[in-house]
Amino acid sequence: LGWAGRIAPEKGLEDAVKVARDLGEKLLVWGLIEDKEYASRIENTFTKGTIEWKGFLPTAQFQDQLGRCRAFINTPKWNEAYGNVIVEAMACGVPVIAYDLGGPGELIENGLNGFLVQPNDIKAMIQAIRSISKINRRNCRFWFEEKASNKVFAKRIESWILKGLNKKSFDE
């Protein structure tokens, strides 16, 4: 299981650690420790070995490690704007289980590339992880290629600019 983000209370790392602990699994954690007191509190609350701190890594190294995860957990305690780490996980072919709070609800298609659960519902998150084998990892990568790749983003920008100029696309 993997989790990534700034190590700060609004990111809800403690919920992901609870999930890993209750499943008897290790949680790989990537990110910059922004709040050292918060990180220490989490580390001291849970059984040693539940968390494996991976740090803030260069992109290629992060993607290599993330791509080996069975599932990616996203547990924001606030209305997440977009969810870059969710998109990164899906680009690596990793299904995502996230709280249905803001951006994740726009990115995750239940049963296709992951599962959405109600915020703070640890039991639902555990159940979703137990169902993760129903997700075809290729669907996660396909979703990324169709909805969030650089090519798709460039096309959206071009369309937006051309619409503003009242012109047709160069591809037409």
Structure summary:
Helix content is 45%, strand content 13%. The protein has 172 residues and is α/β, with parallel strands linked by helices.
Task: Supply database-style keywords.
172 residues; alpha/beta; three-stranded parallel beta sheet; 8 helices
Q: How is this fold's topology laid out?
A:
Elements: E1 2-4, H1 13-23, E2 27-30, H2 36-45, E3 51-55, H3 59-66, E4 72-74, H4 84-91, E5 96-99, H5 104-107, E6 114-117, H6 122-130, H7 137-147, H8 150-165
Parallel strand pairs: 1-2, 2-3, 4-5, 5-6
Helix pairs in contact: 1-6, 4-7
Describe this entry's structure for a reader:
45% of the residues lie in helices and 13% in strands. It has a three-stranded parallel β-sheet, with helices on one face. Strands 4-5-6 form a three-stranded parallel β-sheet, with helices on both faces. The protein has eight helices and six strands, in the order βαβαβαβαβαβααα. The mean pLDDT is 93. The termini are far apart.
Give the amount of beta strand, in percent.
5-15%
The portion of residues assigned to helices is 40-55%
| Spatial ordering of strands, largest sheet | 1-2-3
Round the mean pLDDT to the nearest integer and report it: 93
Radius of gyration: 17 Å
Secondary-structure element order, as H and E? Answer: EHEHEHEHEHEHHH
Count of individual beta strands: 6
Anisotropy-based shape: globular
Helix segment tally:
8
Structural class: alpha/beta
Give the assembly state of these chains.
Answer: single chain
Distance between the termini: 44 Å
Q: What about the largest sheet?
A: 3 strands, parallel
Unreliably modeled segments = none
